[in-house]
Amino acid sequence: MPAATHPAPHAGRRPPPPTPPTRRSALTRAGGLLRACHPAPAAAVTLCSAVLAAAVGRGVAGTAVTAGAVAAGQLSVGWCNDRVDLARDRAAGRRDKPLVTGTVRPADVTAAALTALLLCVPLSLACGTAAGLAHMVGVAAAWAYDLWLKKTPGSWIPYALAFGLLPAFVTLGLPGAPWPPPWLTGAAALLGVGAHLANVLPDIDDDLAAGVRGLPQRLGARRAAPLAGLLVFASAVALVAGPPGPVSPYGLSLLALTFALLLATVRAPGRIPFLAVLGVALADVALLLMRGAGVG
Questions:
Q1: What does pTM read for this prediction?
Q2: Domain boundaries, position 131
């Protein structure tokens, strides 16, 4: 799914000189590659996909292949994002970025992104042709975000498409290739767009200075923050009210906790709002499990 955006150069901030390449141990380079792939969202999306696959009856092998395909796609998107943003990250002085500090070489990140993308294709198709195509469309949307759409008013579209297709990737691998129910697709798409807005919040000023004018940058932090919370809460409502049967006490508690969490974090500094969205996503998956999935 679409990866995080990064700060761009801020007016008046003097960019540091590029870090000269140095000889690094294999372990150091591997650690740099890991940090460059956006490990937190990649792990969260992979875990959610695996749990959902297990919940709908994909079995051990099917769940493993599903998780592998999603992990490969997420890795490719994360590495692509950091490689594309290298010039802006250098100009912004992002010393937390392995490419900026020279821990890992640009060529290594490029190779890793392309390798993960190539692995994603057979792993996705191993889940079935329809499922594989759905997943590859989502991954292609995420790459389109990294390469171009993040700078446009349509920056939200890849998130809606990629997240919305993720449940389809899971269910289309079942016998008969069923599509997920509309409430699940809608909930996933809402969560994706909310995550996009929340993730960009800390970087809006720097992004604008660099000419990155996606939807959240055009809205500004004052409007993007409450909209992010509203979309994530709407996603939780869809998951609670969508499945057949009465709403469980856990579902009602989830709504209350989601509302309180988003209210407390939506204007918090740094990546806290985005991490809160990831927490809500994991809680949503737990809700699906407790309600027997109701997906396939």
A1: 0.85
A2: 26-290
